[in-house]
Amino acid sequence: MQDTQPKASRRGFFLSATVAGAAVASATLLKTQAPAPVAEVLKPAPEKGGGYSLSAHVKQYYKTTRV
After folding, report:
1. pLDDT at 1 over 60
2. What is the pLDDT of residues 20-35, one digit of tens each?
3. Number of domain units in the chain
4. Which of 8, 13, 41, 51 fits a disulfide with 46 by CB distance 3.0 to 4.6 angstroms?
5. Whose CA is closest to 55, among 67, 42, 66?
6. What does the alpha-carbon distance between residue 29 and residue 23 come to, in Å, rounded to a whole number?
């Protein structure tokens, strides 16, 4: 008689463990709460230039990076 079940292999075990770990990690990420909204209060631009300012295009970038 032939054995119809495949033999367990080390490679198959590690593949299954990797897939299970990825599933747990993605489920954990999906359960996290959304980040706090970006502050709507804008500071005036620095007089000598430079520095960080929360402009409209920066807000748009933040919207595109949300998961």
Report:
1. no
2. 888 888 877 776 656 6
3. 1
4. 51
5. 42
6. 10
